[in-house]
Fold these 2 entries.
Entry 1:
Amino acid sequence: MQINLSNLGKRYNYEWIFRNLTYTFESGTSYAILGHNGSGKSTLLTVVAGHNLYSEGEVVYTQDNKIVAPDDAYRHLSLTAPYLELVEEFTLLEMLDFHTRFKPLRKNLSNPDLIDRMRLQRSKNKYVKDFSSGMKQRLKLGLAIYSDTSLLLLDEPTTNLDQEGVAWYQEHVDQNREGRLIIVGSNIQHEYAFCQHHLRISDYHTSPRK
Ligand SMILES: Nc1ncnc2c1ncn2[C@@H]1O[C@H](COP(=O)(O)OP(=O)(O)OP(=O)(O)O)[C@@H](O)[C@H]1O
């Protein structure tokens, strides 16, 4: 997946979050969107994911040299973010069955294989609502990283993870980078250390922002 942003701008009410953003995210490359709290990292990620409307400019998605209609872009992407909820009423096995009906897994992994990779074997019949916050984060990351998508969007990926969880994230994202466009929204170096390019969202502010 390649994404071209042209003069992109997003406004909430009368406040411009970013403006005049022209940038190309190349396929097979990893990018970090950097900026202080409230600078607009999540806003840009949700706009790129098509979950949030932009106010001006253009977003063009290209896959294998063919333009992807914006309404179809969601088929090619996976996103994880603190504000996205899991289905709490499912057990882990039910959650995976549900998710993989819409988003098959990479590398012909089965659902039990993914549970092994997430190191959640002992919790396969546990309800998601009874997971710890770190287990929920590992589940969200596992679903995103291991979905068979060419665009991986990671917003604050190590939220709620301990040191072992951070190492797990780094290992698994590294094993699943090849050929994919990855965009990380973050302020924490260990979340985006693997990214070749950095986009500072404050470069696209129209005035100082709090
Ligand atoms: N739905 C909304 N309506 C109005 N303003 C919003 C909305 N969502 C976000 N904002 C504003 O947009 C700005 C950017 O928020 P955003 O969440 O994108 O920042 P961020 O860089 O991801 O922050 P953080 O590092 O704290 O997660 C903030 O001023 C925020 O208040």
Note: The chain has one domain: 2-204.
Entry 2:
Amino acid sequence: NPEDLAALLAFKASSDPSNSLFSWVNSSDPCSATWLGVSCDPTTHRVTGLFLQDLNLAGTTQPLSQLAHLRHLSLNRNLLYSSSLPLNLSSWPQLKHLYLSHNHFDGAFPTGISQLHRLRRLDLSHNSFSGEIPLTYLIRLPRLLTLRLESNSFTGDLNSVNPSSSSNSSSSISDFNVSNNNLTGEIPRWLSQFPASSFAGNKHLCGKPLPNECSNLTVDSGSRIADKKTRGKKDLLVLVYIGADAVAALGIIVVVTCCEIKKRNRSGTHMVVNGFGSRRTNGTRGRGKGEEEEMVVFEGCKGVDEVGDLLKASAELLGNGCMGSTYKVVMDGGDVVAAKMVRGRTKKKEVDGWLGLIGGLRHSNIVSLRAYHHSNHELLLVYDFLPNGSLHSLLHGNRGPGRTPLEWSTRLKVASDSAQGLAFLHAYDKANIFHGHLTSSNILVDHLGAACITDIGLRQLFPAATTSSSPDDAYEAPEFLLTQRKHFTQKCDVYSFGVILLEILTGKMTAEEGEVSLVKWVVQRVARDLEECARQVFDFELLVHKGMEVEMMAVLQLALLCVAQLPKDRPKMSVVHRMIEDIRMRGGREVGAKSIFNDLSFDSSPSP
Ligand SMILES: Nc1ncnc2c1ncn2[C@@H]1O[C@H](COP(=O)(O)OP(=O)(O)OP(=O)(O)O)[C@@H](O)[C@H]1O
């Protein structure tokens, strides 16, 4: 297309002092595949993608505004700067991905953002943009997943917008960072689920998740009350909406079992104060010989005070796992919880000791255990309900036509979040704790897109349920599977996490019937030449992400370290998390797998 050709040549003429774009020549077609970093629509022959990172480009993007069909613009790590007018994005109405990080752009936030209805990823980080962030417009972009604005000079108050009052909620944003700016005021509740690192380096920003509390809470109290009211209304709607379906599924096994429990119960209530703050205990004793039943409710539990509350509620079966069944339960007041019924006998003392510890765990990448009810033959666990499914369903669900591919950056974020949750767990309680049954179905995604690990510690309570042969064996470390005396360690969790990384990279399930395990499948393919063969193992959905292969390669190397045969050769989870964050933050490109590995030391040196 002559217009596209002219725009590209004008950009080269004004912004390519190092002649990095030497393949862009007037005599050839930009869509002929010989032009560096240019991709086109094969039908319309219009330029749809420019992938021009790390090329020493220095100038403005002005000439590129003629590329009206652009969907992907990646100019990270160049020397580009703003023209006299603020960057105007409205000339690219079809834009899905815009990466401008690590350049010299300055001035106000680019204009025309509200017209980019297809925008999914926006990365303006590490520039010198200033002025206010137009959150009002950004949260209305229905598909926006990534908003990276860190290391600029943005000012203003994040509280100026209340997503619950806008037509679209903010929940589509799953990757958010405004650290190292000059923002002020209290972090609003809808953003407080993101980690503290997303807000760090703003001297006058306060409130959750940052450690500094806001001294002047009155500023926000009005909006908080409004928030609560809106939420109340929303909950009511959810209740009405779910009501019809859920009543049909009323009770299922939860109710049946709870009826049985109720028949046997005589109850009394007392307060117990333990190391995790106050918890309410409804002690109930059954009449049967030696039977003892008890409902323990941890701090922060909403809507569930005693087992009878679950009895009254509507329940819907979510699925059956190797230890029991899990239900979505809508409580009377509209609170939604996940109730997991685990069948099996275990001693009360052990349950109380262990679940007391697990119930005290609070981390943004761990699904909170809110309450449990224990009887002699089963255990009912009440968790926060996470609405966005499991990593397993995101990776493997509906692989047929019509599936929305799971993007690389989303996969990497899930990996990072779950590594962070696991690293926190491994450091907790004098590092004496492990997950024990880490699988992709035990990584769930919350309403903000953060990944959280669940089912912590159930292996310790019910070892028999997880030791019989099952498809989940593919997650088990070899030393655990092969030895008679089953001894689980944190390094077994690291192995399971490595298998999950391979699942993320390959899109393959851990062990489909009659197939070799995923670890063997990958190792066999990359054994001879990692660099050469890695592309054969990557999920075909990921191959569209040109320029991300270095990141994938780095993650592959990390995964292979985690699944090392000998536990001492596997890195600690804190190291694994740091490596993933390095790959994410520095983009893998400059870092390269090798230098990441050189940077970090293990608790023991890896085998050759
Ligand atoms: N807290 C939760 N919020 C939302 N969905 C959940 C929650 N916990 C579990 N689920 C969903 O319920 C279903 C059944 O989960 P369950 O933990 O019983 O089995 P599993 O994870 O599939 O297998 P396993 O028992 O081996 O861990 C899964 O689809 C899971 O995604």
Note: The longest strand covers residues 266-274.
